[in-house]
Write a structure and sequence with these properties.
Elements: E1 4-5, E2 8-9, E3 11-14, H1 20-35, H2 49-52, E4 57-63, E5 66-77, E6 80-88, H3 97-111, E7 116-122, H4 126-134, E8 138-143, E9 146-152
Length: 162
């Protein structure tokens, strides 16, 4: 049995076109929560998630049929994947949803025989940086306002049950 919240199980499944509006809004709400505003010129990939992430594994977490979280694994090359668009509904943060989405993406990376997974986030998003470190990612470098991470698959096999 997986993660439950208030007696309801969190389900992880692939993104479906019918998820478009809810997933886009959740991600944008998360950006507003962090930045305090939304730059409408950024995030054009969210206008058509199916098309923008056609070569990715884009997952959604659902609770009682509603979108609770999401994240995507995009191929960089035959050995490397990149995690992007990790987000959890603001009312459901700190309950383990991000961890189960991340672990499922890492499991997919393992199944695809990637050697590593990379990602980046804003250097001032301290809570997110701590999340990735807790989940086995190592900081590789900082560039400008961004912090870059990697996760070596062979030394950190993911636990899909978390």
């Amino acid at each position: 049995m997986g993660l439950t919240i208030d007696g309801e199980e969190i389900k992880i499944r692939p993104f479906e076109p019918s998820d478009q509006a809810a997933v886009k809004q959740m991600i944008l709400d998360g950006l507003v929560d962090h930045w305090g505003f939304l730059d409408s010129t950024k995030n054009p990939d969210l206008n058509d998630i199916t098309r923008s992430y056609s070569n990715a594994d884009f997952l959604v977490a659902t609770l009682k049929g509603s979108i609770a979280g999401c994240g995507a694994l995009t191929p960089i090359d035959s050995n490397t994947g990149e995690i992007v668009r990790m987000s959890v509904d603001r009312s459901l943060r700190h309950k383990g949803i991000g961890t189960i989405v991340l672990n499922r993406l890492l499991q997919i990376a393992y199944e695809r025989q990637y050697q590593k997974v990379i990602l980046e986030t804003t250097s001032t998003w301290y809570e997110v940086i701590a999340f990735y470190i807790r989940n086995g990612f190592q900081i590789t470098h900082q560039l400008g306002d961004d912090t870059y991470f990697e996760y070596i698959i062979q030394s950190n096999l993911p636990n899909p049950e978390q």
